[in-house]
Every structure is written in C-alpha cells, then in structure tokens.
Amino acid sequence: MFTSVAARAIAIVGTNPVSGMTLMTLIISSVILSGAGLSGRYGMLAGLLIGGVVCTALSMAGGFITDLKIGYCWVQPLKNSSSPNFWEPLLQLLQ
After folding, report:
1. Which of 28, 31, 39, 59 stands 20 to 30 A from 75 (CA)?
2. pLDDT higher at 35 or 71
C-alpha cells in the first residue's frame, strides 16, 4: 500500500519519501503486532524485518518511478525533435 503512495508522491513532487513512509509502516505494524500478541524479541525481529522489506520496496519503487519520469521527459521530445519546443530549452542552456 505504501509503495504506491510513495511512487505517486515521487511522480508528482519529485522527492523520495522513504523515511516517512517507513516510519509510518513501522508504527502501524507495531500496533498490529502488539495487538496480535507478538511482543518481546520476536516482536522486535518482526518489526525490523517489516521495516527492512518496506524500506527496500519504497526505495526500489522510487528509483523505478524516477527512471520512468526521466525517460518520458527526454524520450518523448526526441521522437518529435523537429518541433521547436524540443530545441528551445537546449538553446537557452547554451546561452
């Protein structure tokens, strides 16, 4: 659930909210694990495993969405490279 929310945030804003989403996941999963009766060493281990998996998934989704975003922004104008909208920003960078 949080991976899709993080991917959407990265696509819209451009920043990767890995730390915030991981903390939210840890808090929610800790409450659920505690309510299910899992506490102590096994509860801490389960929380760490959940946090590690979620953090990895969020960072992978962030990298993937960033790659898609960059590819779309640069490949689409190259298909229509005869249009002046493509060359104008490049010419402004050279000035």
Report:
1. 59
2. 35
- The whole model's pTM is what? 0.59
Q: Which DSSP letter does residue 83 get?
A: S
Report the Cα 53 to chain-centroid distance in Å: 14
Q: Which secondary structure element, helix H or strand E, spans residue 65, and what is its range?
A: helix 40-79
The number of folded domains in the chain is 1
Spatial distance between the Cα atoms of 18 and 75, rounded to a whole number of angstroms: 27
State the residue range of the domain holding 87: 2-94
The residues, ordered by sequence, that sit 6+ positions from 10 with a Cβ below 8 Å of its Cβ are: 16, 17, 61, 62, 65, 66, 69
